[in-house]
Amino acid sequence: MFGIGLPELLIILAVALIVVGPDKLPEMAKSIARGVLELKKAVQELQENVEQEVGDVDSWSRDLEKPLPRLTTDEQQQAEKAYTGWEAGVEQGEAADAESGAAADDESVAGDEGDPPPKASAGS
């Protein structure tokens, strides 16, 4: 019980006897016991609700321990093509994001969003 041995328990009881007093100690012990019983009941109800919602743990572990089906070579090739296509799309997207960010920076230097860029005059 929490790593408390008999000597520690006796010291705790002696301090409780001194602090609470001999008259109220039995009453306090009863209220603590009631609290512990209510806590155990609440934990048991919670555990039952979780088991009811989730299901039996044994059935989950059996399902997880089943071997995964093997892919055929055709399915493996399709998966590899899809993955490499996805990687290329991500790289292209990152490059496009970097280019659009640089273009936005250039536009902000030219002026405010509502103002057109300044025109170069022929006479200057």
UniProtKB/TrEMBL annotation:
Biological process, per Gene Ontology? intracellular protein transport; protein transport by the Tat complex
Q: Which UniProt keywords apply?
A: Cell inner membrane, Cell membrane, Membrane, Protein transport, Translocation, Transmembrane, Transmembrane helix, Transport
- Record function comment: Part of the twin-arginine translocation (Tat) system that transports large folded proteins containing a characteristic twin-arginine motif in their signal peptide across the thylakoid membrane. Involved in delta pH-dependent protein transport required for chloroplast development, especially thylakoid membrane formation. TATC and TATB mediate precursor recognition, whereas TATA facilitates translocation. Part of the twin-arginine translocation (Tat) system that transports large folded proteins containing a characteristic twin-arginine motif in their signal peptide across membranes. TatA could form the protein-conducting channel of the Tat system.
Name the source's superkingdom.
Bacteria
**UniProt membrane topology term:** Single-pass membrane protein
- List the InterPro entries: TatA/B/E, TatA/E
**Which molecular function GO terms apply here?**
protein transmembrane transporter activity
What is the protein's quaternary organization? Forms a complex with TatC.
Q: Per the record, where are the segments of Acidic residues compositional bias?
A: 104-115
Q: Which family does the similarity line name?
A: Belongs to the TatA/E family.
Pfam families assigned: TatA_B_E
Sequence ranges of Low complexity compositional bias:
93-103
Where is the segment annotated Disordered? 50-124
Could you tell me where the Basic and acidic residues compositional bias lies? 59-68
The primary gene name is tatA
Q: Where in the cell is it found?
A: Cell inner membrane; Membrane
Q: What is this protein called?
A: Sec-independent protein translocase protein TatA
Q: Which organism is it from?
A: Desulfurivibrio alkaliphilus (strain DSM 19089 / UNIQEM U267 / AHT2)
Write out the GO cellular component annotations: TAT protein transport complex
